[in-house]
Design a protein that fits this description.
By secondary structure, this protein is an alpha+beta fold. The protein has helices at about 1-10, 25-35, 40-50, 55-60, 65-70, 75-90, 100-105, 110-125, 130-140, 150-170, 180-185, 195-200, 205-220, 240, 305, 340-345, 355-360, 365-375; strands at about 260-270, 275-280, 290, 295, 310, 320-325, 330-340, 350-355. Strands 1, 2, 3, 4, 5, 6, 7 and 8 form an eight-stranded mixed β-sheet that branches.
Length: about 375
């Protein structure tokens, strides 16, 4: 642990959420970092913290504001859960992030990893974490066999993470503590230092720093492919390196086969306004805005029945956007279209918005690119 902490002190990236120990700010960063790289998250986090600096502000915020701040990060259930969790904080915890692991775990959208990360980093509590980076590090260092998504390997990894943060809680070096010693160290914690973040820091506890160091090691050194073993602070005790089996850990099963999907979006303009619609409250990209669209079988032309009630004004695409949602590889093609006959005079399948109004709405990333392609439209 000493070598790892020394390495982290020198090599840790200067990320904005590392300049604070505000539990709310750390919690927001952890939510944003799920399935998203730190370099992408940084500007989003800074913009969010300026607009919604605490749980009370988030609890009061309207969904339109929170979705707009989140626009482009994807996995939008995270932002809806965050708003719900903020309301719980206001109602039950005085507007603060809970100070115990159990209470944090009870928040909407907060799982074992997020609760452990915030409690350890913000409050220096000995709560373990296990994300993709830490899973990879522990699997290689300790030679944990099996798919880490399976029950047996997963339980082993969580046990190791708990063991290590327990050692950090005692302020001892990993070189001086085996698994049994780690358990013994946990038993020696005194009542005077329990639960008090200042006391924990003063007594040499490094729970939060250890967890951050493990995550950073996985991000910067112990990479999925071409890990930099020669500069790893844990290389001397790493099972995978010693056995020359680094590529075998973690033993992830091959992902399921991806599927290809194709959509046609219709750009309808009338009196300087574009037709748009909001996605339903349930399902992917809930509450976000988009141009009307339909799914088309891959490789097929757009039949009139699929385009109804729209009529294409040209077969040339305005733009083509490729993106992915989970295992789906999606092609979105945008076409200029109009609403003829009764559809033009009756209730339109959406609402009419100017370009400036659309810019202020939270849109899906793919449809935001369509809007960008219309920059020169008058």
């Amino acid at each position: 642990m000493r070598r790892l902490l020394e390495w982290f002190a020198v090599n840790a990236r200067d990320l904005p959420w590392r300049r604070t120990r505000d539990p709310y700010a750390i919690w927001i960063s952890e939510i944003m970092l799920q399935q998203t790289q730190a370099k992408t998250v940084a500007p989003y986090w800074e913009r969010w913290m300026r607009a919604l600096p605490d749980a009370r502000a988030l609890a009061r915020a309207k969904p339109a504001q929170t979705h707009k701040l989140w626009e482009g990060l994807g996995y939008y259930a995270r932002v809806r859960n965050a708003r719900a969790a903020a309301r719980v904080m206001v109602e039950k915890h005085g507007g603060e992030f809970p100070k115990t692991f159990a209470e944090a775990l009870a928040l909407p959208g907060v799982g074992r990893y997020t609760a452990g990360a915030v409690c350890s980093i913000a409050y220096n509590l000995p709560t373990p974490i296990l994300d993709g980076n830490v899973t990879r590090v522990l699997s290689r260092v300790f030679g944990v066999a099996g798919d880490p998504r399976g029950k047996k390997a997963r339980e082993r990894l969580w046990a190791l993470a708990e063991e290590l943060v327990g050692i950090a809680d005692c302020g001892l070096r990993i070189a001086d503590c085996g698994e049994a010693a780690g358990r013994k160290c946990q038993q020696k914690e005194t009542k005077e230092t329990k639960g008090n973040a200042k006391d924990r820091n003063a007594s040499g506890r490094n729970c939060g720093r250890l967890n951050e160091a493990l995550m950073e090691l996985g991000a910067l050194v112990c990479a999925p492919r071409e890990p930099r073993c020669a500069v790893c602070p844990l290389r001397r005790g790493c099972f995978a390196r010693r056995e020359n089996r680094v590529a075998e850990f973690p033993a992830l099963k091959a992902p399921g086969k991806s599927s290809c999907r194709r959509f046609a979006a219709f750009i309808v303009k009338k009196n300087g306004r574009f037709l748009a619609r909001q996605r339903p409250a349930s399902g992917v990209n809930a509450f976000l805005w988009e141009f009307p669209n339909v799914e088309i079988a891959p490789g097929k032309k757009i039949p009139a029945a699929s385009a109804a009630p729209f009529v294409l004004t040209g077969r040339k695409t305005v733009c083509r956007v490729r993106h992915s949602i989970t295992r789906h590889r999606i092609l979105l093609e945008a076409y200029l279209a109009e609403l003829p006959g009764p559809a033009a005079t009756g209730a339109a399948p959406g609402v009419w918005r100017t370009r400036a109004q659309l810019e202020r709405l939270a849109m899906t990333s793919a449809h935001r690119k369509i809007l960008s392609a219309l920059r020169d439209e008058k």
